[in-house]
Amino acid sequence: MSRRFEELDWRETPIGEISLRRRLDPALKVDVYEVKLGDEFLMSSLFTDGEVELARLGLAARTGDELDVAVGGLGLGYTARAALADRRVRSLIVVEALDAVIGWHERGLLPRAAELTSDPRSRLVRGDFFAMAGDATGFDPEAPGRRFHAILLDVDHSPRHVLHPSHAALYQPDGLRRLAARLLPGGAFALWSNDPPDEQFTDTLATVFATAEAHVVAFPNPLQGRDATNTVYLAQRPR
User: Fold this and answer.
1) Measured between alpha carbons, how far is 151 from 219 in angstroms, rounded to an integer?
2) pLDDT digits (tens, 9 = 90+) for 169-204
3) Do residues 148 and 68 lie in contact, with contact meaning Cβ atoms separated by under 8 Å?
4) 8 A C-beta contact, residue 237 and residue 187
5) Cβ of 55: how many Cβ atoms within 10 Å?
6) Does residue 227 lie in a domain region?
7) Range(s) of the domain holding residue 207
């Protein structure tokens, strides 16, 4: 197979066919890693600014040292690695629903996978983040009921465009209250979205959290020759 394109993995999953591909971009002369769900592109290593800002903004909202962080959605690992780059983070749990995605990292199919799998602060947990948010055990099977200084979520396209209907309840007031209960006082919840800021969702966050705001993250899109944007929602419990 040509170096210009390679399908690294393909699996049937409960939400459809998922694949990891590597291609050489002839214009940029870089290897690009892409994830597809069926015929739909989920993520690309060309566009990671929003994922990195998700971690930066979520952790910047917290003061103090020795932070415990939970991430919903592993993907290509950019949010989790950005969290580990903050030396205040003493523990990181990454909850991922798909065995295939965890396997990509454990098998070293991604070039920076070892930064997650070899860091003693980091642990990959197989599970449904959305179900675990409302379950008594929570996100850490080894410490039922554990609470965190920050929770960072990057799974759905946006609160209105979800990958599975079961996810939608989390973005409603009752779902957000259950999620907020997983945070310590002053804890921060940060959410990635591919859509522009949604004022109605920001207002919903404000009914549950002490503060709620939407940050627009702009970054260059070399494929279209213009800037693109993501949104990071940031909400915080009272201290």
Assistant:
1) 24
2) 999 999 999 999 999 999 999 999 999 999 999 999
3) yes
4) yes
5) 28
6) yes
7) 47-236
**Side chain identity, residue 30:** V
Of 168, 239, 181, 169, nearest to 208 by C-alpha is 181
Which residues make Cβ contacts (< 8 Å) with residue 39, sequence separation at least 6? Answer: none
The count of structural domains within the chain is 1
DSSP classification of residue 117: H
The span from the CA of 211 to the CA of 188, in Å, is 9
Tell me the three-class secondary structure of 126-148, residue by residue.
ECCHHHHHCCCCCCCCCCCCCCE
Q: Is residue 116 part of a domain?
A: yes
Per-residue pLDDT reduced to its tens digit, 67-106: 999 999 999 999 999 999 999 999 999 999 999 999 999 9
Tokens of 210: 């002490």
**Nearest by Cα to 91 from 148, 25, 142, 49:** 148
Q: Is residue 41 in a domain?
A: no
H/E stretch holding 195 reads none
Q: What is the pairing mode between strands 67-72 and 148-153?
A: parallel
* Contact indicator for 58, 188 with CB cutoff of 8 Å: yes
Task: For residue 208, tell me if it sits in a domain.
Answer: yes
